[in-house]
Automatic annotation (TrEMBL):
SUPFAM superfamilies: Mechanosensitive channel protein MscS (YggB), C-terminal domain (SSF82689), Mechanosensitive channel protein MscS (YggB), transmembrane region (SSF82861), Sm-like ribonucleoproteins (SSF50182). InterPro entries: LSM_dom_sf, MS_channel_1st, MS_channel_C, MscS_beta-dom_sf, MscS_channel_2nd, MscS_channel_C_sf, MscS_channel_TM-2, YbiO-like_TM1. Keywords: Cell membrane, Membrane, Signal, Transmembrane, Transmembrane helix. This is Mechanosensitive ion channel. Belongs to the MscS (TC 1.A.23) family. The lineage of its organism: Bacteria, Pseudomonadati, Pseudomonadota, Alphaproteobacteria, Hyphomicrobiales. It comes from Roseibium polysiphoniae.
Length: 791
C-alpha cells in the first residue's frame, strides 16, 4: 500500500470510528459497518468487502499516531480535506453534492472544462440525465452489496451472538414496556379529560375546532414525552444504575419510541381518528381510522427497524448484517406503501371528486378533479424519491427525509388552511357592521362583488406558492436562490408593484364611491335634490372610467410593457371616434354643461326642443320627458338650443280676466282682489308668495275689456293655483253681478219694413226677434295657456 493510500485509509478509519458514531447517535441514524462507509466514500478496493472491527480500527489508528511521519501526513491530509471538498463541490455540481465518488467528480470537472461556463440547455440536461442514471446505478449496486449480509448469515459465515442478543432483548423490552404503559395511561386520562370539551366543537366554528385540535395534539405530545421519561427512569434504576446511566441500546430504543410517537401524533393531528368533531380534512370516520392505522404501522416498522433493529443487528451479529437489515427495512416499507397506494387509488380518487363537487369555485373543482386523477402517481413519486434519497445518502437520509416530509406536511397544511379561509370568505361573503351598512348601504355589495374575484386570484397564488415551496423542499428547484437572483428580484418587484397599483386604485375607487353614497344619503336637515343626484351619478361614472384606465396603464407599465404605443393608439382611436361620432360628443358635452349650469333636473317641467313635459330621466347625452297626454319624448342634447324651465326658484300665474264694457273697472278690480283673498284662505294659500299684483286694463277687445293680475307661487304650483283662482273669480263675479262677456253677432235685414198690419209686431220686437244670441263660452286661452298636471 502506498503512502497516499495508507493516509486515505487512516483518515477514513478516523472518520468511521469517531465522527460517524457521534453523528448517528445525535440524529438517530443507525450505525453501519465499515463496508457501508467505504461504499459511500466511493472506494472500490478490497476495504469495501472487509469488515474490520472497532478494536482493529483503533489499533491501526494508534499505530499511525505513534509514527511521527504518518501522524504528520495524517494531519496534513486533514488540513487539506476541506479545501479539496470545496473545490470538488464547485466543479462537480449536483453529482458531488449527492454523494458521488471521486470518479464522478473528476468526470464532471472534465465536462465543465470542455463545455466552459456558458453551457447550453442541452448540455446541462445531458449532464443532469447522466448524473441521475449514474446515481441510480450506484444505488442499485449498493443495495445488492448491502443484501449480501443476509447471504452471509444464511451460509453461516457470520454467527449470532446469542448472549448479547438475550441481554439486548431484556433491556429493550423493559424500557419500552415501561414507556408504553405510561403512554397508554396518559392517553386514557387524556381521553377522559377532553371528552366533554371535544363535544363543544360541534357547536363551535372553525377557530374553536382548530384551537381544541392544537390543544389535544400538545397533550398527545406530552403523553409521548411522559412515556419517554418513564423509560429513561426505568433504564437508570435497573441495568445501568444512576452512576453509569442508560446504555446505548436503551437510549436508541427510547429514541425510537420518542420519534415514532411524535410521528404518530402528527398522523392523529391530520386524521383525528378518535376525535371526528375536530377533524379538519374531509375524511369520514372509517377512512380516517384506516389511514391512521396503516400509516402508523409503517411509521412504527420503519422507525423501530432503523433506529433499533439496525443497532441490535450490529451489536449481536455483524455490521454487514446490520447494513442488510437497514436496506431490507427500507425496501419493505416502500413496497408496503406502494401496495397501499395501489389498493386505495380508486377509492381515494372518488372521495376527492366527491369533495370537489361541494366547492363553489370552478377552478378549485377542476384542480381537485385533476389531483384525483393523478394522486396515486404523485404518491408513487414521493415514495420513490424517499427511497432514492435513502439509498443514495444512507447516513443522513433520516434527517433529510424527516425534515423534508415535515416541512412538506406543514407547507401543505398551511396552504390548505389559507385556501380554506379564502374559500369560506368567498362563499360566505363579507359582513359589515350594522352602522356601516346603514350609512353606506352599497359598500357591502361592492365588496362582495369585487373581493371574491381578488380572493380567487390570491387562492391560486397560494396554490402555486405551495407547489413551488414543496419543490424547493425536495430539491427539485431552488426557489429561494431564484428569488434572491437579479431576475427573480426584478420579476417580483414588477408584479408586486403592479398588484400594489391595482390594490391602491381599488381602495381609492371604493373610498370615492363611499363618499358619493354619503352625499346622496338624505338625513335630517339635508335633502338631496335631483340636480345633486344627477351630477354625482355623472361624476361616479366618469371617475370609474378614469380610475380603470389609469390603473390599467400604470400596471402594464410596472410589469415592463411599453404603454406609449397604447397611449398613442388610444389617442388615434379617440380622434377617429370624435370625428365619426360628433353628434354623440356634442350630446355629452352639452349635457355636461346643462347639468353643471343646473338647467334641468329630474321632476322639472321644461320645454326642450319644442317639447313640453315633465323630466323623468336625465343622462349625460339625452333627456326623457313625458307630456300632458302621457307621451314619452327622448330629446338628445345636440338638438337643444334653448331650455325653458317652469320650476326655478318661483313661478307666476298670470290671469287675464275679461269684463263687459259697461262694467265699473274699480268694481271689477275689487272683485278680483276678493277672489284672491278667498284663495289665500283656502288650501292653496301656502303655495302663494306675496300679494296680488294688479296690472290693470291691458286690452280692449271686441266684446270685453281685459284686466290682468299676477300671482307669485312656489315652483310648479302656478297651474294648480291658477285653476283654483279662476274658480273663485267666477264665484265672486256671480255674486256681484259682473258679467263675463262673450262674442255677439247682430243680423240686419236689407228689405224695407212693410206697413203695419193687424197683429204685426212692433219694429223693436222684430229686431229683437231677428237677433242671434249664441251661448256663453268662457275665454279659456285668455285665462291659462300653461300645461301641467294637477297636484
Amino acid at each position: 500500500m502506498t503512502a497516499s493510500a495508507r493516509i486515505s485509509a487512516i483518515a477514513f478509519l478516523l472518520f468511521a470510528c469517531v465522527v460517524l458514531p457521534s453523528v448517528s447517535f445525535a440524529q438517530g441514524i443507525p450505525l453501519t459497518g465499515s463496508a457501508t462507509s467505504s461504499e459511500s466514500s466511493g472506494e472500490a478496493s478490497d476495504t469495501a468487502n472487509a469488515e474490520p472491527s472497532l478494536d482493529a480500527a483503533s489499533e491501526a489508528l494508534i499505530k499511525v499516531l505513534q509514527n511521527p511521519e504518518s501522524r504528520d501526513a495524517l494531519i496534513q491530509r486533514l488540513k487539506e480535506l476541506p479545501s479539496d471538498q470545496t473545490g470538488e463541490t464547485s466543479a462537480s455540481g449536483a453529482a458531488q453534492a449527492s454523494g458521488e465518488g471521486a470518479a464522478s467528480a473528476s468526470q464532471t470537472d472534465g465536462d465543465a472544462a470542455a463545455t466552459g461556463n456558458d453551457q447550453t440547455f442541452a448540455v446541462r440536461l445531458g449532464q443532469y440525465t447522466r448524473s441521475t442514471v449514474d446515481s441510480a446505478v450506484a444505488s442499485f449496486a449498493r443495495v445488492r452489496h448491502a443484501l449480501n449480509g443476509l447471504v452471509l448469515l444464511a451460509n453461516g459465515d457470520v454467527q449470532v451472538r446469542w448472549e448479547k442478543a438475550r441481554q439486548a432483548t431484556i433491556e429493550v423490552v423493559l424500557v419500552l414496556g415501561v414507556a408504553f404503559v405510561v403512554f397508554l395511561l396518559g392517553q386514557r386520562l387524556l381521553h377522559m379529560f377532553f371528552q366533554r370539551y371535544v363535544l363543544k366543537a360541534q357547536y363551535g366554528g372553525v377557530v374553536m375546532r382548530v384551537f381544541l385540535l392544537a390543544v389535544t395534539t400538545l397533550a398527545d405530545l406530552l403523553t409521548v414525552g411522559a412515556g419517554w421519561a418513564a423509560g429513561n427512569s426505568a433504564a437508570l434504576f435497573t441495568f445501568g444504575g444512576l452512576q453509569s446511566g442508560a446504555s446505548l441500546l436503551e437510549s436508541l430504543a427510547l429514541n425510537a419510541f420518542l420519534m415514532t410517537g411524535v410521528a404518530k401524533v402528527g398522523l392523529r393531528f391530520v386524521f383525528a381518528p378518535e376525535r371526528p368533531m375536530l377533524r379538519l380534512l374531509p375524511f369520514d370516520d372509517a377512512s380516517a381510522v384506516y389511514w391512521a392505522k396503516r400509516l402508523g404501522f409503517v411509521v412504527s416498522f420503519f422507525g423501530y427497524g432503523q433506529m433499533l433493529g439496525v443497532p441490535v443487528a450490529n451489536l449481536t451479529v455483524s455490521f454487514v448484517v446490520g447494513n442488510a437489515v437497514r436496506v431490507l427495512v427500507v425496501l419493505l416499507a416502500a413496497v408496503f406503501l406502494l401496495a397501499l397506494v395501489r389498493k386505495n387509488s380508486r377509492h381515494v380518487a372518488e372521495g376527492i371528486k366527491t369533495y370537489a363537487q361541494n366547492l363553489s369555485s370552478d377552478l378549485a373543482q377542476r384542480i381537485l378533479v385533476g389531483v384525483a386523477e393523478v394522486w396515486h402517481w404523485l404518491a408513487y413519486l414521493y415514495i420513490l424519491m424517499v427511497l432514492g434519497v435513502w439509498m443514495s445518502r444512507p447516513f443522513d437520509a433520516v434527517a433529510i427525509v424527516m425534515q423534508a416530509t415535515g416541512y412538506s406536511i406543514l407547507t401543505i397544511m398551511g396552504g390548505f388552511l389559507v385556501s380554506l379561509a379564502i374559500t369560506r370568505t368567498i362563499t360566505g361573503g363579507i359582513r359589515l357592521p350594522e352602522d356601516v351598512r346603514t350609512n353606506l348601504p352599497a359598500l357591502e355589495t361592492r365588496l362582495n362583488t369585487f373581493l371574491p374575484r381578488m380572493l380567487r386570484i390570491l387562492r391560486f397564488v397560494v396554490f402555486a406558492l405551495t407547489v413551488l415551496v414543496l419543490l424547493e423542499i425536495w430539491g427539485v428547484l431552488s426557489l429561494s436562490n431564484w428569488l434572491t437572483s437579479p431576475s427573480g428580484v426584478e420579476l417580483l418587484g414588477r408584479y408586486g408593484s403592479a398588484a400594489l397599483v391595482l390594490l391602491v386604485a381599488f381602495a381609492i375607487w371604493l373610498a370615492v364611491m363611499s363618499w358619493v353614497d354619503l352625499r346622496l344619503r338624505e338625513h335630517a336637515g339635508y335633502v338631496v335634490t335631483a340636480r345633486v343626484r344627477t351630477l354625482f351619478q355623472l361624476f361616479r361614472n366618469a371617475f370609474t372610467v378614469v380610475i380603470i384606465v389609469m390603473a390599467a396603464l400604470l400596471s402594464l407599465s410596472e410589469i415592463g410593457i411599453d404603454i406609449a404605443p397604447l397611449i398613442a393608439g388610444a389617442g388615434v382611436v379617440g380622434l377617429a371616434i370624435s370625428f365619426g361620432a360628433q353628434t354623440l360628443v356634442k350630446d355629452i358635452i352639452t349635457g355636461a354643461f346643462i347639468q353643471i349650469e343646473n338647467a334641468i333636473n329630474e321632476g322639472d317641467v321644461v320645454t326642450v326642443g319644442g317639447v313640453t313635459g315633465t323630466v323623468e330621466r336625465l343622462t349625460v347625452r339625452s333627456v326623457r320627458m313625458r307630456d300632458l297626454e302621457g307621451t314619452t319624448h327622448i330629446v338628445p342634447f345636440s338638438s337643444v338650443d334653448m331650455v325653458s324651465n317652469f320650476m326655478r326658484d318661483f313661478s307666476y300665474h298670470v290671469a287675464i280676466i275679461g269684463v263687459s264694457y259697461d262694467t265699473d273697472i274699480k268694481h271689477a278690480k275689487a272683485a278680483l282682489l276678493e277672489a284672491f283673498q278667498r284663495l289665500q284662505q283656502s288650501e292653496y294659500g301656502g303655495r302663494i308668495i306675496g300679494d296680488l299684483e294688479m296690472h290693470g286694463v291691458t286690452n280692449f277687445g271686441d266684446s270685453a275689456i281685459d284686466i290682468r293680475v299676477r300671482i307669485k307661487t312656489t315652483p310648479g304650483d302656478q297651474w294648480s293655483t291658477g285653476r283654483a283662482y279662476n274658480e273663485f273669480v267666477k264665484e265672486v263675479f256671480d255674486e256681484l253681478g259682473i258679467e263675463i262677456p262673450f262674442p255677439q253677432v247682430t243680423y240686419h235685414s236689407a228689405v224695407p219694413a212693410a206697413p203695419a198690419e193687424a197683429g204685426a209686431l212692433p219694429p223693436s220686437e222684430k229686431e229683437t226677434k231677428g237677433q242671434a244670441k249664441p251661448r256663453k263660452t268662457p275665454d279659456v286661452p285668455a285665462l291659462d295657456t300653461s300645461i301641467a298636471p294637477d297636484e
